[in-house]
Specification:
Order of helices and strands: HHHHHHHHHHHH
Strand content: under 5%
Number of strands: 0
């Protein structure tokens, strides 16, 4: 409407779309909630990690950059792994496994990374974080394409992007508040896994993936996934 600013119109559009999803698309609702928590944990990881590496492990600027590079490099095989697992499993299960890897790796990092001189361990853990993130992000795209009703992709993909950004500020805020309160930064790092756990719970609440896909008129995607999976199995058996 001419009487509304672009910002206000966009806000109301997101609100009405979210209300529609809540009332009519329960599987998509839980998927977006999982994206909200998991992307908040993943997106804030670099910020929290740099603080921890600088303060606790005494990393230099170059060493911090190498740790972030390790995460980015790890995401490449993670994306390929997602391509394979989504042919054998449905993408909900694939996303749960990928997110579990990131959650476990976060706790391991808090336990293992305790003092300066642990550059190699940090880089290896960074590769694992990246592997899980690349796997999860690729599975997310497939989930979004199969759970969004046919004909509404443009509008509801916008909500998907919004869900991935809406609380990315919260994990750094919690970490900073804990740090200012005198809580060990190792505990702060470990509690970052909570965001991944919330996301895993939301993924489980999606329920029957096949029924959700059929409900939004995307049955052809199930047939395509099944055909690709059978083709891969035949190649393995005949190879």
């Amino acid at each position: 409407p001419e009487s509304q600013s672009l910002w206000k119109a966009g806000f109301f559009q997101v609100f009405h779309s979210s209300l529609y999803i809540y009332r009519n698309l329960p599987a998509l609702k839980w998927f977006y909630i999982s994206v909200m928590f998991i992307d908040a944990g993943t997106g804030s990881l670099a910020t929290i990690l740099i603080t921890y590496l600088t303060d606790t492990l005494a990393f230099t600027t170059a060493e911090n950059a190498t740790a972030i590079l390790a995460i980015l490099v790890g995401s490449i095989p993670g994306a390929f792994a997602s391509g394979f697992t989504n042919k054998w499993w449905y993408p909900v299960r694939s996303s749960i496994v990928a997110t579990s890897i990131m959650a476990i790796n976060t706790v391991v990092a808090a336990v293992v990374l305790t003092s300066p001189g642990q550059q190699l361990q940090t880089y290896l853990l960074g590769l694992v974080w990246g592997f899980g993130a690349g796997w999860k992000w690729t599975s997310d795209k497939l989930l979004a394409s199969t759970l969004i009703p046919d004909g509404q992709s443009t509008e509801l993909m916008g909500v998907y992007l919004f869900a991935g950004q809406v609380i990315t500020w919260l994990p750094p805020l919690v970490f900073t508040a804990m740090n200012e309160a005198g809580v060990s930064q190792r505990v702060g790092i470990a509690t970052s896994a909570v965001w991944f756990l919330f996301g895993i719970v939301a993924l489980f609440l999606i329920g029957d993936y096949k029924a959700a896909v059929v409900a939004v008129g995307r049955e052809e995607m199930l047939c395509k996934e099944s055909e690709e999976g059978h083709r891969e199995n035949d190649e393995i058996e005949n190879g």
